[in-house]
Amino acid sequence: MPTLVSGGIGSGLDVGGLVSRLIEAERTPTETRLAVQEAGLQAKLSGFGLLRGALDKLKSALDGLNSATLLSATRASSSDDTQIIASADATASTGSYAVEVSALAKAQKLASGAFAGADTVVGTGTLTLSLAGKSASITIDDSNKTLAGIRDAIHAARTTDGQPLGVSATLVTSTGGVEPAGTYLVLTSAKTGQASTISLTQAGGDGGLAALQYQTGGLANGLTEKEPPGDAIVKIDGFTYQSAGNTVSGAVTGVTLTLKATTTAPVTLTVAADTGGVKPKLQALVDAYNGLRAVLKEQGGYDAAAKKGGVLIGDPALRGVEQQLRRVLADPVPGASGAAKLAGDIGLSVDGSGTLKLDSAKFDALLSGDRGALAGVLQGDDGLVARLSGVVDGYLSTSGGIIKARTDGLNRRLSDIGDQRDDLTARLDGLQKRYLAQFNALDGLLAQIQSTGNFLTQQLASLPGAGSADK
Questions:
Q1: Which of 108, 283, 316, 459 could be joined to 229 by an S-S link, Cβ 3.0–4.6 Å?
Q2: CB contact at 8 A, 187 and 167
Q3: Is 373 helix (H, G, I), strand (E, B) or coil?
Q4: What residues contact residue 228 under an 8 Å CB cut-off, 6+ apart?
């Protein structure tokens, strides 16, 4: 709305000031009412935001208890991690085993005869390099016929599907000793196990590449075997298991052994229940539930000392969520059997003030003594976790959830307040124009009357004898 600066034309009447004060008198009550409504709606939105945050934390805590392996997980440990490292999955059974490692898996290593140096020309032709059933064809011509060039060509070799073959090539130089002095081409397999053998054959060219060929049991080998391939051999309680690699996953169901060294005495492998993470997750549920209660009390309760209620006091959504959660915690779990049927049977209880508590002694006894009964109460389609999650999801859902419905309604009312402000501005703009027109007309009339009065005064003062006194 424009600022009023109009003054009286000739009467001295403060038209702008009068109109401004009249407009302000019209504006203030409505603006005050709308501001109060807006502040209340914003406070409620904030309250529902806090409620959503508390429910999100409760949902996260429930998700942490929903793992299928939470109560069936096992943990494997080795008495000597420098020799054997052990891990287990959910299929492993508890037990103890004596493990011995007779041999580690090894990769094959081949070496050429001595060459004068890396720049020595070996020859041309085609090399076919194979490892564990896959092969690569390598062309050796004038561009790469030296020992260093052949090393690089082997490094760059790819199988027909474009993958590295898994054979590394290096050059090693000796000054002489048991072996002749010179530079040697050394090939090493990336794969362990006695079945992972290297084959290198040559064809065509000038025949010089024959110095590099190798086949297991071949009679015309140019390369010699420096390290034969070998399987890992491990004994578990006297039963022998042979593996192509040093990571053994088939010897004990659900257990993976990483072999680090051969043993001189048995290493003890222990597979035990891994329940250390269960109690902290249940405590997280307790903390999240009590955190939600604190939000419900702050936003929907009444402070008698301050004589003030929360911004969401009386809202049925707040009453409903706590009632539903407490009902789930109080009702027996459908289908649960054995030592536990209620939340209280696993150590969860709501005290007189509504606070959820965990009886550690009761929970620990059930966890160590009957995990099946604990799982029957906590998990499954009718368990505590599923039913509590159902209540929480009903509030948090982005499609039809209670909180979304409430916040959408509040946002619509806030939008309506914005529309009312726009309407108020438009109405006051029109009213200002009418007031200005009316007061300017009044100012003009007053100016005219004043002018007429001045004229008459002048005329009367000019009459004969108007200025003399009676005698």
A1: 108
A2: yes
A3: helix
A4: 106, 108, 194
239-258 pLDDT, tens digit each: 999 999 999 998 999 999 99
Return the ∠ at Cα 160 (arms to 155 and 162), rounded to 5°.
60
Rounded to the nearest angstrom, the gap between the alpha carbon of residue 70 and the centroid of all alpha carbons in its chain is 20
For 236, the 3-state DSSP assignment is strand
| DSSP states of 394-462 | HHH-TTT-HHHHHHHHHHHHHHHHHHHHHHHHHHHHHHHHHHHHHHHHHHHHHHHHHHHHHHHHHHHHT
- Please count the other Cβ atoms lying within 10 Å of the Cβ belonging to residue 284: 17
pLDDT at residue 62 above 90? yes
Of the pLDDT bands very low, low, confident and very high (cuts 50, 70, 90), residue 467 is low
Amino acid at 114: A
Residue 459 CA to residue 457 CA, distance in Å, equals 5
Burial 164-180 (b: 16+ CB within 10 A, else e): ebbbbbebeeeeeeeee
Closest CA to 176 of 186, 165, 184: 184
Q: Is 33 strand, coil or helix?
A: helix
pLDDT tens for 430-462 read 888 887 778 777 766 777 777 777 777 787 777
Percent of the chain with pLDDT over 70: 95
Cβ–Cβ contacts within 10 Å for residue 303, how many?
11
Number of helical H runs and strand E runs in the chain: 8, 19
CA 346 to CA 351: how far, in whole Å?
15
Rounded distance between C-alpha atoms, residue 439 and residue 4, angstroms: 12
Structure tokens at 228: 């034969």
